[in-house]
């Protein structure tokens, strides 16, 4: 299988490329990657040209930019139109939901309250309209093991006295980047279509997540400032998708268990 991976310079895209047991063609926009193809996903002509040149059997679309509607919303739509005959997995987010007391399963309708969530929800709609055999894979906060994820970088910065704080009432379902990448690769090889949820099975607050990272990395968890903020529970119920996968989506307290010295 020839696999095209967008956003290959990012945390998730890099891990997909690393784990893939395929002929992988990575794409990037501004940060070059080895063997990569430069691509502006906002430009449908470029997208069509790359697909014609590469002729992939499958695509995992992990490219996004939180503060850019065109990249986050139009980019996936461009791929859905240009690659409608190609196996397509689009990585979305739990931010398509606005928050509530109950977990969100794959049948829950999007209800975004942020521009980023709205952009991803718009992309989901476009992908499902133009590429009905695609997979829309929603995930949550992504954490790594090498200090490279947003949550890890922020934890170290706050523990070092940088301004800012973790929200203590923002509940999410963190997932390890390796589990997520492996799950996406399973989905791209499967015949599953429609919505899939790839969040971790354990819900924690942003503050709890920061504290777990701090403990793992030998930092003082009590040094992390907390900010109450508005209560926002966005819990992905990934039970249905987990039954499709051999990859086990580990709970956050397992993959952030303190390292043994």
Please outline what is shown here.
With 261 residues, the protein is an alpha/beta fold.
Describe the protein's architecture and organization.
This protein is of the alpha/beta class. It folds into two domains: about 160 residues, NAD(P)-binding Rossmann-like Domain (Rossmann fold, 3-Layer(aba) Sandwich); about 70 residues, no CATH class. The protein is about 35% helix and about 20% strand. The chain is built from nine helices and 14 strands. It has a seven-stranded parallel beta sheet, sandwiched between helices. It has a three-stranded mixed beta sheet with strand order 12-9-14. It is globular. The model has no long low-confidence stretch (mean pLDDT about 95).
Please render the helix and strand layout as text.
Blueprint: E1 2-6, H1 11-19, E2 23-28, E3 37-38, H2 44-54, E4 58-61, H3 69-82, E5 87-93, H4 115-130, E6 135-139, E7 142-143, H5 150-159, E8 166-167, E9 170-172, E10 175-176, H6 177-189, E11 194-198, E12 204-205, H7 206-216, E13 226-227, E14 232-233, H8 239-242, H9 252-255
Parallel strand pairs: 1-2, 1-4, 2-3, 4-5, 5-6, 6-11, 7-10, 8-13, 9-14
Antiparallel strand pairs: 9-12
- Going by CATH, the homologous superfamily of the largest domain would be NAD(P)-binding Rossmann-like Domain
Count of extended strands:
14
First CA to last CA: what distance? 41 Å
Average residue pLDDT = 95
Question: According to CATH, what is the class of the largest domain?
Answer: Alpha Beta
Count of folded domains: 2
Shape: globular
Helical proportion? 25-40%
- Biggest β-sheet: strands ordered side by side in the sheet: 3-2-1-4-5-6-11
Q: How many helical elements?
A: 9
What would the CATH topology of the largest domain be? Rossmann fold
Return residue spans where pLDDT drops below 50 for at least 5 consecutive residues: none
Order of helices and strands: EHEEHEHEHEEHEEEHEEHEEHH
Beta fraction of the residues?
A: 15-25%
């Amino acid at each position: 299988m020839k696999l095209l991976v967008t956003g290959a310079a990012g945390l998730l895209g890099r891990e997909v490329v690393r784990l893939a047991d395929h002929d992988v063609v990575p794409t990037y926009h501004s940060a070059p990657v080895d063997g990569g193809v430069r691509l502006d996903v906002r430009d449908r002509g470029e997208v069509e040209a790359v697909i014609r040149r590469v002729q992939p059997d499958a695509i995992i679309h992990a490219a996004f930019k939180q503060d850019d509607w065109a990249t986050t919303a139009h980019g996936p739509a461009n791929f859905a139109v240009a690659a409608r005959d190609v196996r397509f997995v689009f990585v979305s987010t739990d931010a398509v939901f606005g928050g509530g007391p109950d977990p969100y399963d794959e049948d829950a309708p999007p209800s975004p309250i942020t521009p980023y969530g709205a952009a991803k929800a718009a992309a989901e709609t476009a992908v499902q309209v133009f590429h009905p055999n695609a997979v829309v894979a929603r995930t949550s906060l992504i954490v790594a093991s090498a200090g490279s994820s947003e949550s890890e970088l922020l934890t170290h910065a706050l523990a070092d006295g940088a301004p800012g704080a973790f929200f203590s009432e923002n509940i999410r379902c963190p997932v390890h980047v390796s589990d997520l990448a492996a799950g996406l690769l399973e989905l791209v090889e499967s015949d599953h279509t429609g919505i899939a949820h790839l969040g971790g099975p354990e819900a924690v607050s942003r503050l709890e997540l920061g504290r777990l990272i701090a403990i793992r990395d030998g930092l003082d968890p009590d040094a992390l400032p907390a900010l109450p903020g508005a209560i926002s529970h966005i819990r992905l119920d990934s039970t249905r998708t987990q039954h499709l996968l051999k990859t086990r989506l580990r709970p956050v307290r397992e993959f952030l268990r303190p390292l043994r010295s």
